[in-house]
C-alpha cells in the first residue's frame, strides 16, 4: 500500500489573501474557497494543490518545509515576486549559493532556484 501526495497545507493569518498571492505567483487557480480553507491548483484536477487554512497565531521560527521554484529566468522571477510583495530574507544561506531566498506576504520562506 502507498499514498499519493495530494496537497500541502499552509497555515495563514489571512488564508484568502495568501492563497490568491500564491495563485498569481505560480499561475495556479483557486479551486475552492470557504471561510475554513482556500485551495489552489494548477488546474481543477491538477495536483498537487496548496490549501491555506486560518490559524490564530503568527509564525515565530523559520519554516521546516518550504517550496523551491525553478523559473526560466531567476532574476526576472525574483523581481516579479518582489514586486508582488515578496521580500528577501536571510536564513543563513551562503552568499555564493545559486538560489534566492524570499518570503511571501506572511513571512513563509521559499527559494527561487536558477534555471535548469
UniProtKB/TrEMBL annotation:
SUPFAM superfamilies named among the record's database cross-references: Glyoxalase/Bleomycin resistance protein/Dihydroxybiphenyl dioxygenase
Ranges in a coiled coil: none
Domain VOC: residue ranges: 4-115
InterPro entries noted in UniProt: Glyas_Bleomycin-R_OHBP_Dase, Glyoxalase_6, VOC_core
Highest rank taxon of the organism: Bacteria
Classification via PANTHER family: CONSERVED PROTEIN, HYPOTHETICAL FUSION PROTEIN
Protein name as catalogued: Glyoxalase
Species in which this protein is naturally found: Micromonospora rosaria
Amino acid at each position: 500500500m502507498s499514498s499519493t501526495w495530494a496537497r500541502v497545507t499552509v497555515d495563514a493569518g489571512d488564508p484568502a489573501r495568501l492563497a490568491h498571492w500564491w495563485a498569481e505567483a505560480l499561475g495556479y487557480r483557486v479551486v475552492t474557497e470557504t471561510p475554513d480553507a482556500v485551495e489552489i491548483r494548477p488546474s481543477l484536477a491538477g495536483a498537487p494543490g496548496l490549501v491555506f487554512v486560518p490559524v490564530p497565531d503568527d509564525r515565530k521560527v523559520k519554516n521546516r518545509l518550504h517550496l523551491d521554484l525553478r523559473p526560466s529566468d531567476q532574476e526576472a522571477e525574483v523581481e516579479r515576486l518582489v514586486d508582488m510583495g515578496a521580500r528577501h530574507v536571510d536564513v543563513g544561506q551562503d552568499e555564493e549559493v545559486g538560489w534566492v531566498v524570499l518570503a511571501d506576504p506572511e513571512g513563509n520562506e521559499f527559494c527561487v532556484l536558477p534555471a535548469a
